[in-house]
Please model this.
Amino acid sequence: MRTVIKSSLAAVVLLGGLSACEKAVEAPMDEGVCYHVGDDASQPGGIRFNVVARDQPQIEFCAARLEELRIKFLRMGGSNNDLVGAYQGRFIFIDRQGVKMSTSLTGPRFFALTRTGDGRLAIPGAIQREIDGRPIAIAP
Model:
């Protein structure tokens, strides 16, 4: 019984060590360039960075360009409501709830922009809500 436990423990340690050696995908650091992140098995890490816009002064502008891209995909008949982008070393995640940001693809995400009642993006504190939590308007 002890040899089974020892060999299982050794296998877990070995697998943990191998996964620690795998390099995490990093967002490009190009100044002012907004990227769409897509899957591509032929690229290192299985990820491809496609340029969406250049000369974007802030990450929020990049999020707006990515939201435009998401809407265009949906209008062309796409069904994916989620989109991932990158801007100056950070990843941007857009979904039905709004925009989240992170320094890694798998790490914790910071909630940056939320959707208003009509689907637009706004700073979370700028939205007035009903008592049940539904958004009603953007505060003046």
In short: Confidence is low (pLDDT under 50) at residues 1-19. The helical segments are 2-21, 59-75. The first helix runs from residue 2 to 21. The beta strands are 34-39, 47-53, 83-87, 90-94, 98-102, 110-115, 121-122, 127-129, 135-138.
